[in-house]
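Extended Data, record Regulator of chromosome condensation
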Amino acid sequence: MSNIKSLGDPYPKTKQPDKFETLDPINTFPQEVTNIVDVVENQGIVFLSSEGKLYQSNAEKYHEKLKAFENLPPIKSISSGYFHFLALSNEEKPKVYGWGQNKFKQLGFDTNKNDVQKPTLIESLKEENIDQIFCSGFCSFFLNKTTNILFGCGNTQNGMLGKPDITEEFVEIQKLHENVANVFSGHSEHTLMIKTDGKLYGFGVNFNGKLFQILKFCVFSF
């Protein structure tokens, strides 16, 4: 990059500024990349190109040209939690891929897969025709907009899946809620959900709220 205005001391591992401002392109993508259409991050950064390819960067490989993940169909959307990623394929019957940390079953795999290094097909969702994917901090959500069924997995503590009747601490993928129109889960430990009746529901951690400490499952009427 050129014309960088440094906002901090160089980061020891990469010798690059810890913080910077620039309007110049990031020149670590191969020539076949036309545009980057989405970016998500946690312990690394994942880029989605207009060609439907995924690229991931991290501090240890800062200077290298990024290479697309291989053996994947075209991807249409991505999401990230604190330590995991999801990707949804752009196919007639979309498939869901997950990678990163699976310590809390947030990828839906059994606990023998604690750390998944590359995008891996989530087999249990192959027949569910998932339209949207969402990551919260330690959970994942998958919405079928045809049946309006919301699936989820991960950490159940503090009501993070919105199912108080679940007794296990961590769960693999299961059906959570019906009649769901949309879900908003922004890289945190709480989630908002709009049902087909137009009502907004919220669940998960609400430590900064003034009305209650933990938002187990509430409905907001307007």
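Summary. Residues 1-9, 209-222 have pLDDT under 50 and may be disordered.
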